[in-house]
Design a protein that fits this description.
mainly beta, globular, 12% helix, 3-stranded antiparallel beta sheet
Length: 82
């Protein structure tokens, strides 16, 4: 199942709230990737905050991206804490 990302928001630190095309909201923690190339650039939080959506995929400058299927499988359902 391939679901495009249609919206996202930064939560805290390196956590991102993702909204998929089926309306499902899921939370992904990018901190789990920082020790891996090319994601070590996320240590620069200004760079990390430059994320955007292109063609249903979360991307950063310099051709860094995380496939939507990876984000879906490796994320957890979002439960808003009041």
């Amino acid at each position: 199942m391939l679901l495009d990302i249609v919206d996202f928001d930064f939560l805290n630190e390196y956590k991102i709230l993702l909204t998929f095309e089926n309306g499902e909201k899921r939370e992904f923690d990018c901190a789990t990737l920082i020790d891996q190339k090319p994601f070590h650039v996320f240590e620069d939080k200004n760079y990390f905050k430059r994320a955007k959506i292109e063609y249903g995929t979360l991307v950063w400058p310099n051709e860094i991206d995380i496939a939507p299927e990876t984000l879906y499988v490796c994320s957890t359902p979002y439960e808003k804490v009041s």
